[in-house]
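User: Before I run my own analysis I want an independent prediction to cross-check against. Here's the chain; please return only the structure tokens and, at the end, one sentence I can use as a sanity check.
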Amino acid sequence: MKKLPIGIQTFAKIRDPEENYVYIDKTNVISELVNSGSYYFLSRPRRFGKSVLLSTLAELFSANKALFSGLYIEDKWDWQKSYPVIRISFGSGQFNTKALLDDAIFENLKANYGKLNLHYDASLSMRSSFINLIKQSSQQYQEKVVILIDEYDKPILDHITEPDLARFNRDILKGFYSTIKDLDECIKFVMITGVSKFAKMNLFSGLNNLQDISINQNYGTLCGYTHAQVAETFAEHLQGVDMDKLQQWYNGYNYFADPIYNPFDILLFIANNKEYKNYWWGTGNPSFLIDKLKEQNYYLPDVQNFVADDIVLDTFDVDKIDLVALLWQTGYLTFADKWEGFNGMQYRLKVPNKEVQQSLNTLFIEYLTHQGPQLRVNQQVLYQSLVDAKFDDLKSALSALFASIPYNNYANKIIANYEGYYASVVYTYLASLGLPMVAEDVTSKGRIDLTLHFPDKIFIIEFKVDQAEKALAQIKAKNYQEKYLNQGKTIYLLGINFSSVEKNISDFEWQAV
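Assistant: Structure tokens:
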């Protein structure tokens, strides 16, 4: 059985026969990429295989044929020709001072001079050194140069909550990257990857021919694993696994080709005895997202139905961070579909899978309530009250939730008499349990605030603020339950009223149908 390439970002090591690692062949898509253009930009969430992609390109342009034995591209590439490859990466290191970022750039340059057997002149400025590296490489090897830049945006993203430092790092990188634009005659191929589309057009100003392939369906599977690839390549590892459940947990990232898995999830799932856990989520620190969610008074169920256009998706800079773009680019949202609107393409976004859905909602509840470890206990009480249809316990669990929200979370940030806020908190709490639900559930008589589905029962829930006894009355008056009468399940109608003064439940009525 082949080994799992966990943490291996070097194509040569993965393809070494003695190492015997699993590899999913991406060279069919890579072949189309290198034959269709010369300057590319690709954004993908963290842990998506961007570094392995660039390593593969480096070996391909270096004409290391042995590494591609048996792969799609083996008989479709001119192995007689190799090119000097310059690799720049900001994947490691700290960038919290100008000196540290400068040092990282110079270390990258110095390493490339050494690898290409060129003379490194320490007296040159950053820009002059990069220009010299490109020109010297082309002259020495009598070929145009390949430039591969990995995690181009990390020095900025690492300090997204420190605008002054993020802005400072952005300006340094802009000066560095702008070097490329004046040396087209020396350049064969450029590939730039990162998590965000951080001021892409600003950082790479002048590179008018830089193609953004982030949502180009031709390259939608360039990084990540499709379900077919997982089922075939990891067949031995996945014996006995419910493949539908695997898809629900980890598949669902959509770039308008086949839906894909984050490779990190699949590899860790197998390595950890095929236990369903939040592997990808656990590698990041998305707390800065929560600041943005709260800052914009945003209604959480809307995360399932964001609609954005190209302008919004490309709007992402230190001074202008759009929430939708942030959630999409960092992997917490993905595409559901697209259509042509009156002013260009429109995109509907969704949460990609169960891992992200549960994690995002749990994080929000933890941040909102400051419950910490106690949250797990309260979640279990809430879950059991729903399973057993014990409404006194359900009311107590929800009341405890709202009682745990600090008062300052309401002041100047959240409108206390806005029923959408209370619905949002309940929705998030329930979603953190992984329960199937529908927010704003459409019926012929109107919209149900929240519908919650169990195998043997359905909860139809309506929320009100300062309108005692009206929530349940509305459900009954509009006959919301009619939509589900033929499913053979017990239906519970639940009306919850909140007090804008007490910031908690003031009226709780239910009825079985």
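Sanity check: The first strand starts at residue 39 and ends at 43.
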